Fold this protein.
Amino acid sequence: MSKAVVRRRVVAVALMAVGLAACGGNHGGGAATAKAAGSQRHEPSVRVLSQDQLKQVVVSAHDLPGIRVEKIGTGSQGVGDGVIHAMPRTNTHPDACAPVSAAVDGASGYSPVASVQRTIDMKDHSAILTLASYRAAEASRVIDELRAALRTCTAYQAGPMKATYKDVKATNDVPQGEVGVAFRLTLVMDPNDDTLKIPVSVIVTHQGSTVATYKAISDDPRTPATIPAGLVNAQAKVLDSAVHSGQ
């Protein structure tokens, strides 16, 4: 295996885990959260899934044969439950890209009621899945704000390490029938080294008050990352059943 491939895979592993570092602290939701909370009384009632309920609705091999679902980390000591917090706009430059930056980490500008993160392994594919349960109409606002940001956001820096993302572009990768947003971008680890430019793909959907975020990367800088439609559809089916079953 070439050194370039090894370096890309090391970076890929780091990127897959970056959501935990970026979302592990309680940042607070700022004005966006306060605004949403204040308007809840005007929104239709929706079922908000609890932490335990989110754990139960993570897609499994029963729903999609051949996949392997694990917590972030190793074995039963891995993490991934209740780690997501609101992402302040000041973490991203320019701040107009904040919804995009947050989505890459499975988060948003709102503080969820509960969340889970899991790694999903399929044949020839892997992804990080984040399920976040929000209050009232916040889930749809997450989608709307992300869609609006993608109209103007083309590149940004984020986090204390000032990670650089370029080539941000909305795509049509959301499976037919699902409500959500999809986009691609490139993590630039070294502007002078093409082997350290990492393609990233993200799909964000929602059922009821639950937002599902899928993130995948490619270890080949010339090949876009792929999130299988079958995975998105299977998870959406499980979520939809939970939202309407009342269980």
